[in-house]
Amino acid sequence: MLRRLDSEFSQDPQDGKQQPMPVVRSRLRSQPIYYHRETLAHSLDGRKVDLLTISSLDNILDEREDALPGLFPDHPAMPRPRHFQNKRVVFVTARVHPAETPASFVLEGVLSFLLKDDPRAHKLLKECVFKIIPMLNPDGVARGHYRHDSLGANLNRHYIRPTLAAHPTIFATKAAVLATCHTHSKLALHVDLHAHAAKRGCFIYGNRYDTMPEQAASQVYPKLVGLNSVHFEYDQCNFSELNMHLVEKRDAGLSKEGSARVALHRETAAMCPPVYFYTLECNYNMGRQACSIPHSGSGLMSTAPLSPEVARKSYVPKYTTASWEDVGKGMMVAVLDWLGTNEWSRIPHSPFRTMAGLVQDIRHHVAPSFDLKGFAKDKAPPHVSIVATKPPLTTLKNEDRKLSKSDKHEMKRFGYVGLPPTTTPKKDRTRSTSNSNNGGGSAPPTAALRSLSKPPILRSSPNNNNSNHSI
């Protein structure tokens, strides 16, 4: 596909070096498109890693991007792309795991939509600059590997401290992503494309935030993808703290903290406006349910009530390449919704009716995992074995305190329902009776005194799926 795009746009080798504007030729498109392809780095086996820059000619500057040290080997013979003023940058990467071919079809759907003669695509390119790396692990693809590169490393576990010598493609990708945070157009979101063999459906892995407003904001984009692609299943998305630290046996003890989604999120956590990082996963075979999406409109919100839903017998179809391409297209339309500039949005024809309604729905579903102050209940430092991090619950009489739903939910997590026991355990009472019969007096034993003088310490059970996990 890249060769076809190269021939279609037929860039001047100097990319307009003698001209104030780049040379962009395409007889098939009503609007001019800025398309720039360059070599970001070489892999360990010497294969090229391409970086594409796609946008419209709106707000283009004469100034060019800087050549980063050790990267862009064809520079200065091939100049860097031009800067854009006041646009948002969307970064898309794929094939860090060589065998995950659905990721390439999703990317083809992304490129096909961006370069399509469609008013939504024109609007999107006017608002954004797209940076795309089609293949992060060309050595693994050429060698027929499943997840690893030529040295047997899972490259998606080395984003924390990659080196140019051992992980040149990841080192270059991280540098390129972070560089967009300091340009005239700021980075808005990054999506890393993958495939999943064990879990059905197309879904997103996101990050866990400390407060409810931040968490709800991070889940807006995945929710919008679900409104724009019939094959995307928002209900299967995972935004948990555990999924940010998970260690799989096949990764030699390396956790997901080294993935692009988590490592780059931590690198940019202090940025304002915030940058969102996601992992898109697509099953090779099929989804979990047959989904439907509202139709797109003219942007005018209807005031008529929604028609009642009619139950229909449906089956879950098998995925084809067109299914994954549709997910890529839905990702791009969702960006336009996310920016609030989609005149053909499906939101007015959805149950949410407005973006505010959609956000409110997300907050409603997110709220139970946060306390009354809006802080995450399950947020814990990584690599800490949690034994009893919860403070002892205050023991009050039932008539003095009415339990809220959140209190009951919290108590249920620790293996019991109701208020903590305030009486002496049965074993201690038996021991106290035997001591008194033997002339030991009526004073309770030391253990019983301790149990009466302070409330019990609650310890989470390692076998309880709802308890805190040792990370």
TrEMBL record:
Gene Ontology cellular-component terms listed: cytoplasm
Signal sequence region: none
Compartmental location: Cytoplasm
Entries under Gene3D superfamilies matching the protein: Zn peptidases
Record: active site: 281 (proton donor/acceptor)
Tagged with keyword Hydrolase: yes
The EC number(s) this enzyme carries: 3.4.17.24
Stretches for region Disordered: 1-22, 383-471
InterPro entries, per the entry: Cytosolic_carboxypeptidase, M14_AGBL5-like, Peptidase_M14
Gene Ontology biological process terms, A to Z: proteolysis
PROSITE patterns (UniProt xref): PEPTIDASE_M14
Keyword entries, A-Z: Cytoplasm, Hydrolase, Metal-binding, Metalloprotease, Protease, Zinc
Cofactors that this protein relies on: Zn(2+)
Compositional bias of kind Polar residues: 8-17
Boundaries of every Peptidase M14 domain copy: 1-339
Biased composition (Basic and acidic residues): 397-413
One term of GO molecular function: zinc ion binding
Family: Belongs to the peptidase M14 family.
Name of this protein: tubulin-glutamate carboxypeptidase
